[in-house]
Amino acid sequence: MASSSTKSSSDAGAVAAVPASPAPAKSIESAMPRPRLSADQLRYCSEALQHFKTKAPQTIRQEFMVLQDNRMTASDMRSRCTVARDSVNISKNRYTDVLPFDDNRVILKQCADYRPSARGYVNASLITTSESVSRFIATQGPLSHTSEDFWEMIIQYQCPVIIMLTRLVDDYRTLKCVDYFQAENGPREFGNICIATKKMETSDTSLIWRSLEVKYKESEEPPLSVLHVQYPEWPDHGVPNDSLAVREIFRKVSSVPPSLGPIVVHCSAGIGRTGTYCLIHNTIQRVLTGDMSALDLLTTVTIFRSQRIGMVQTLEQYLFCHDVIIDELQDFLSAGNSHGSL
């Protein structure tokens, strides 16, 4: 779908730093602690599981065809993305056809580009469905000259979590995201912002977890604590081999209260793998609150795409959403049955 002056928007993936390894199934218990659910929540999970397990693959394919048939046209995108297309902001976009809409773009009160016409621009979109579940910021992988604005966004919006679903370099040759976060050898500075890594660990599911502290260099305020998780093994335009790592991210991140700042999710373009994770997270959270409208994934993706173009890019990703949701609901119900009546 997307393209830039030199390449297409493969919503991609590769990391440097910590080598990834396959996930031994035996560690899933400790890596993914199961929450105790109420009787009502178990009932919601059972109803949702029945819905998704009886949904025919052909129905899922037809839904995705509907989504693709209703994709926004290039002319409509241009009319809704005037700030992103301004001459002072063009170079801040990784791909020319993945731009935030004017009406729900993230706006920075201050940024590296102080020109009035820049209008606090960063290629990032606010993604919401309801106030009772997590809000997201879907964004592109930072460029070398937008990393300061990325961290400015994190501080201004008080974002508690960053979910990175890409490698830095894909296939050892295509840059998908600059290194905006690794600071194992001491603090790093991006303009007026300093970040420091306080802890790092790699899980058996190949996830890399970092505890970061972010602050303005001259500020007397305490630093913002940010959890950064990277999933380097999620292939560009594709899906993982199993649901374990995605579900581990969900388990740990979904406990963050929605009242805190939005969760930042990015890959390379910030629409394919980003949209897929947001759909999984949003659907399971809404089911647990008893919102059965969450079972209509077609409508949820339609809402997401009205807030950022192209969210959930491929049929394979749409099918994967169903598989992950089923796995997680089954796990919740198994845990509930083993705990007995609550």
UniProtKB/TrEMBL annotation:
Which GO molecular function, any one, fits this protein according to its record? Answer: protein tyrosine phosphatase activity
* Enzyme class name: hydrolase
UniProt xrefs under CDD domains? PTPc_plant_PTP1 (cd17658)
- Whether RNA-binding counts among this entry's keywords is no
PROSITE patterns, alphabetically? TYR_PHOSPHATASE_1, TYR_PHOSPHATASE_2, TYR_PHOSPHATASE_PTP
The entry's keywords: Cytoplasm, Hydrolase, Phosphoprotein, Protein phosphatase
**Biased segments, Low complexity type:** 1-27
GO cellular component, alphabetical, reads: cytoplasm
PANTHER family for this protein: RECEPTOR-TYPE TYROSINE-PROTEIN PHOSPHATASE, TYROSINE-PROTEIN PHOSPHATASE 1
In its UniProt entry, what is this protein called? protein-tyrosine-phosphatase
Organism of origin: Salvia divinorum (Maria pastora)
Gene that produces this protein: PTP1
